[in-house]
Automatic annotation (TrEMBL):
Residue ranges annotated for the Mur ligase N-terminal catalytic domain, each copy included: 25-92
Known function: Involved in cell wall formation. Catalyzes the final step in the synthesis of UDP-N-acetylmuramoyl-pentapeptide, the precursor of murein.
Lineage of the organism: Bacteria, Pseudomonadati, Pseudomonadota, Alphaproteobacteria, Rhodobacterales
Location(s), subcellular: Cytoplasm
A GO cellular component annotation in the UniProt record: cytoplasm
Pfam families: Mur_ligase, Mur_ligase_C, Mur_ligase_M
Family: Belongs to the MurCDEF family. MurF subfamily.
BP GO terms, sorted: cell division; cell wall organization; peptidoglycan biosynthetic process; regulation of cell shape
Name listed for the protein in its UniProt record: UDP-N-acetylmuramoyl-tripeptide--D-alanyl-D-alanine ligase
EC number of this enzyme: 6.3.2.10
GO MF annotation terms: ATP binding; UDP-N-acetylmuramoyl-tripeptide-D-alanyl-D-alanine ligase activity; UDP-N-acetylmuramoylalanyl-D-glutamyl-2,6-diaminopimelate-D-alanyl-D-alanine ligase activity
Chemical reaction(s) catalysed: D-alanyl-D-alanine + UDP-N-acetyl-alpha-D-muramoyl-L-alanyl-gamma-D-glutamyl-meso-2,6-diaminopimelate + ATP = UDP-N-acetyl-alpha-D-muramoyl-L-alanyl-gamma-D-glutamyl-meso-2,6-diaminopimeloyl-D-alanyl-D-alanine + ADP + phosphate + H(+)
């Protein structure tokens, strides 16, 4: 289906189209571009204009550029604009304006990507649903997501992130959401904010982009919930609060089992029971918030709860895998929890709670006792108190329940130094330095959590663990 014609794209951006072309997708990366995509030559680490010729060779339908790049014919299918990023923004705004879709905007210090994926699963069973890819939630990710939205979309879920003040509101206005949700406010990107209240103010600014009469869905359990509530009132939105202290969607009980989370809640007194096919109290909270969003949209709540029950996290976001270490004796396994994409103190505490509650298997490896093992990398962008926040993880009850903690990164040295001897594993400055010893540190029967900020490259450790055997689906 055609997403953009040359004439439509030129009108939306105010640019000049070369040729009479059409595109059925939008891409910013020649590594993943598909035939028929509109290639957007953004300037980031590299100038996208350097890759236009390659994009066209790979079958791109056209390229969005501010000049004709070297090696590209003057009659090549192009859309020439003054500023590529501004043109992408206008393309996204035009895509939003032409659709009748009901749009959800999601932000939060923790859980926004998982919640976005939950909503994609829940709404996808009730209509044509479009959502952000991966964590495309920044100044180019939001307009790119909008520009990719087909005109016949019925529901859209737009993830909005930030790492500095003033970033969320313009992106929220671009999305023009019917419902906006804040999953939580936590110590993330603290180096750019004076305190947690400042982060709450920034997160609350997502409500500035909600259409008049829309909904604000917010976590009532967080320290600065009042800031979110006041902003919703200022924006004249209807609010839905979720959580243990939620007036509308109240969390009553969470039972975390080996591979399932069972949740009891209520909506204004009416009972709600739902399951999530992955362990974690934080998933229960996100799921309850997602159900509140579905209520605001007026969709079938019973069907939404069923769809939520089939959702599972994906790689880097808490997905659990079983790694078979012996191809002959398939009982020789370890469990891997891959949470390597991001980390801050709140998400780290949630992941450690999952590991502390995990079931190990004894008497199947060279070490007779199955162990709960954490491989933890630096939590970045925490500001001047970063070392104290890392060291503070040792005091968590869930950390004390673990058998071994391995630490990666300069900041994680602070945790390593205060761990008791019986828990202290290895410390390395980089993930690469841990790799040669990895096989000797793990054994059959263990449950292993890998978590840290993306820049610590703990994904290489996850990949190495996977290569130790053959991943199979959990039963």
């Amino acid at each position: 289906m055609t997403l953009w014609t040359a004439a439509q794209a030129a009108t939306a951006t105010g640019g000049r189209a070369v040729g009479d072309w059409s595109c059925d997708g939008v891409s910013i990366d020649t590594r993943t571009i598909e035939a028929g995509d509109l290639f957007v030559a953004l300037k980031d680490v590299r100038d996208g204009h350097d890759f236009v010729a390659q994009a066209l060779e790979k079958g791109a339908g056209a390229a969005l550029v501010s000049r004709v790049p070297d090696g590209v014919a003057k009659n090549a299918p192009l859309l020439i604009v003054e500023d590529v990023l501004q043109a992408l923004e206008r393309l996204g705004q035009a895509a939003r304006a032409r659709t009748q879709a009901r749009v959800v905007a999601v932000t939060g210090s923790v859980g926004k990507t998982s919640t976005k994926e939950m909503l994609l699963a829940m709404l996808g069973d009730q209509g044509r649903t479009h959502a952000s890819v991966a964590s495309y939630n920044n100044h180019w990710g939001v307009p790119l997501t909008l520009a990719r939205m087909p005109a016949d979309t019925e529901f859209a879920v737009i993830e909005i992130g930030m790492n500095h003040p003033g970033e969320i509101a313009p992106l929220a206005r671009m999305a023009q959401a019917d419902v906006a949700m804040v999953t939580t406010v936590a110590a993330a990107h603290l180096e750019a904010f004076e305190n947690l209240a400042g982060i709450a103010v920034e997160k609350a600014s997502i409500f500035e982009g909600v259409k008049p009469g829309g909904w604000a869905v917010l976590n009532a359990d967080i320290e600065h919930a009042a800031i979110l509530m006041a902003k919703a009132v200022d924006c004249r939105l209807r609010d839905l609060e979720f959580g243990v202290h939620g007036h509308h969607f109240k969390l009553l009980d969470v039972q975390v089992q080996a591979d399932t989370t069972v949740v009891q809640a209520s909506h204004e007194g009416a009972p709600i029971l739902f399951k999530i096919a992955s362990p974690g109290r934080h998933f229960a909270m996100n799921g309850l918030g997602a159900l509140a969003v579905c209520h605001a949209l007026g969709v079938d709540m019973a069907l939404a709860a069923q769809s939520l029950g089939r959702w599972q996290p994906y790689r880097g976001r808490g997905v659990r895998e079983v790694i078979v270490l012996d191809p002959v004796d398939t009982h020789m396994t370890l469990a891997l929890i891959d949470d390597s994409y991001n980390a801050n103190p709140t998400s780290m505490a949630a992941a450690l709670a999952v590991l502390a509650g995990a079931e190990v298997t004894h008497d199947i490896g060279r070490v007779s006792k199955g162990r709960r093992i954490a491989i933890l990398g630096d939590m970045k962008e925490l500001g001047t108190g970063a070392e104290a926040l890392h060291a503070g993880l040792a005091g968590l009850e869930t950390t004390r329940a673990l058998d071994v903690v391995h630490c990666v990164g300069p900041l994680m040295r602070a945790l390593y130094d205060v761990l008791p001897d019986h828990q202290r594993g290895a410390w390395t400055e980089t993930a690469a330095e841990l790799l040669p010893d990895l096989r000797g540190l793990l054994d059959s029967g263990d449950v292993v959590l890998v978590k840290g900020s993306l820049s610590t490259r703990l994904g290489t450790i996850v990949d190495a663990i996977r290569k130790m055997g053959h991943p199979v689906e959990t039963p």
